[in-house]
Amino acid sequence: MTLILASQSPRRKKILEFLSIPFKVVKPKGVDESAFLGEKASQLVKRLALSKALSVSKRYPHLPVFAADTVVVQKDKIYGKPKNRHEAFKMMMSLQGKKHEVWTGTALVWNKHRMIKSHTEKTTIFFKKLSPLEIKKYIKTKEPYDKAGSYDIQGSASNWIRKWEGDYFNVMGLPIQWVVQQAGMISRL
Q: What DSSP element (H or E) covers 93?
């Protein structure tokens, strides 16, 4: 059975390939990723993952649709993907030398079986102290611009991570235990 991945994230694709889960990528349409006033990160990522999965499941009602959304949070401030160098610099300056959380919401929608499942997961990251020069050098690369919080755990920014608490793969965009459980359940249906 082929899973539909409602995401164009190269990191999510790599995780599913690593797990040998057959999938096809379909871009969700019409999902506004803006946070609601007062919405917590865990609520935001869960809502967005469900919205993306539901959007794509309308086009593929007989196949399981899997979606996810990831944000970085520090002291209740939610960081998505930076829009430009200035925003990436501000994010990295804010995160450096401190801890922050990475929240990923995942959803599985399979209309054929009237199934809607969702999950949220948090991983805490502890960054080393960085100089403005290090950050300026980093933001000149392509790496920061399609990642929540302006970094990826498996990229060059991994050198700045002192430690993490939680699922490494969650920081990449998919909590691996939940994905494996859902894939196992799908294969049994």
A: helix 85-95
Residue 179 identity: V
Range of the domain at 66: 3-188
- DSSP 8-state class, residue 2: P
Beta-bridge mates of residue 121: 104
Which of 69, 76, 146, 152 is catalytic? The answer is 69
pTM confidence score: 0.94
Total of domains in the chain: 1
Q: pLDDT tens digit string along 6-62?
A: 998 999 999 999 999 999 999 999 899 888 989 999 999 999 999 999 999 999 999
Answer for the pair 17, 179: CB distance below 8 angstroms, yes or no: no
H helices, E strands: number in the chain: 6, 7
Domain harbouring 79, CATH code: 3.90.950.10
Could you confirm whether 69 is annotated as catalytic? yes
